[in-house]
Amino acid sequence: GGEVRVELRGEANPFPDCPTPVACHTSTFDVTTEACVDAEEPDGTACDPGNACIQDATCTAGRCKGTERVCDDGNACTTDVCNPLDGCTAVPAPPCPGDGKCQVGACDPKVGCTLAKAPDGTFCGPERGCDAADVCLDGTCQRRDPPDNFACAPASPCQGPGKCKGSVCERPAATAVVPDWTYDAASNGEALHDLLVGPTGDVTLVGFFVPALLDAAGPVPVRASVAGRRCMLWNDRLLCMDLPGSGQVSLLDRVTGAPRWTFDLAAARPDFTQGLTTVFMARLGVMQPDRLAALFEAYPSGTARDTLCRRYFLVVLDAFGGMVSAQALQDPLLAECNHPHPYGVASDAAGDLYVAFGQTQNVGAPLYPGAPTLLMAFSQDGVPRWRKTEAFAAGELAIVNGLLLNERSTQALSTQDGQPVGSQTFPRGLGRALATSAHVIPSPSEDATAGGWTLEGYALPNLTPSWTHAFQGWPGPVAPEVRLASWTTWPGQPPETVVLGTGLDAKGPVLFAVSAKDGSEVFQCPVSNAATPAQFLELGPDSVVMMDGATSCGECDPPYAYSQARFRRFPIPGLKPAEEPWPGTFGGPGHDHHEDPVRGR
What we know:
Helices cover 2% and strands 43% of the residues. By secondary structure, the chain is mainly β. Among the domains are: 25-68, no CATH class; 118-170, no CATH class; 176-199 and 434-582, no CATH class. A hairpin with a 4-residue loop joins β41 (496-504) and β42. It is globular. The N and C termini lie far apart (94 Å). The mean pLDDT is 88. It comes from Corallococcus exercitus. Residues 578-601 are annotated as: Disordered.
């Protein structure tokens, strides 16, 4: 028989690239299944924790864990802290406590807190009149008949202290607070409508689809070299979403705008983004100093840019932009083509994450939320914990002491399982709520039965009504954006937490402070050259930055999109951001919606 020759030809194809694995995992191509397989690294494998404050890190059950770096500069008058990006650093320690009367706190670098005599004339008791006053003399509290010119009423940002003249406490007339700089975006044709104030008082102005403007003093900001769509502060730096279409998030130096790192979802997880029309950032949320929630949005495969269908991906990043976890979010509500959107993102003191999705009632930004709301809870590593659907419309979230507060809800929910807490409901929606360690304070509201605008405090943990402050004679409105601030009412006395906000009294715009403890008035100051309350405000050390002139809605997403607003900084010596679990940072998705794990605890 004839000889048959069979020629075999083969072509060697390289294994396809697998997506970037998360920490303590590998991703390799399996030739049998022709798919990438994810596997945990063996326990004990050395790993990068993505946190300069963690040392000797190894893999444990697929998570990178290590020991906490101990920082100590040997000075008892500083607080030694560790920055996840920069390592050990020292900051001034909180003021040492006094005895509440005539002994004030002092600090010795070697031994720490001590006591010293309060200055003579410091108030120390309930009597503060011009015929009798409880004052400190040589370290003890004594009742005396104060002399003329004795300070009998506290100073405010717009009014000097009251002075005794005989039996009468005379106060100088109030003057309007005046800005030390103004930046009017409309005059430059810039769509700027959001602001951030850094810990040193530097200001960042941000817009929707425009570069960030960075400003350390004023009045003319310095344009950064990077385009930041929406920004927040994290680890003393500026965290910005890049322009849509890129699916990137970058950590930037606050002053120069130089990037420390950039995370790109398409580069890190092409298996997520393959075939999708467009990928872009939807929301950011701080979870911990070394945990960041980045929520990416995309148009599904085969759809046009005008589609109302969406896909969402949740990625948890460490302080250096490394992936801790990544997942595609799935739910029947998210599968509906009505532009489901994450209108609320927040985290609690443990670093667990909470997201509120809702349908969008309109087409195009800014987005208006509808009902129902899908609530989703995740651990600090992105592991799903629980989810549920509520009848109210989606909105921003706040968290304090295990309570989950949605701005459009009238009842608090438990962070453990999302179930209602107690029988107490709020008479109106919570709005942009604040929370001290003792009270939840909803946004100011107009109450026809009370005869005008009011601010209310509800005592924790049972949320029982505690106090009401009525803005008597104010035609309003009182702006929904309020903040918690620290203000020293009397020299020598400890500072108190106040609710700071703006509104319209009978004469015009007013900056007000109300005691968060009992709702009493602390001060009211006219605001110069304004016709309306501030649409947005943020606190810095010894200053308040206000925004007005925005033409879009403040309760949509993004708030005030495309507006060309005016920004003004007002020097307020002695005013500080409050140290409370939820001082109020609802200006927009770029802000830190995180319950402080130490303050107010």
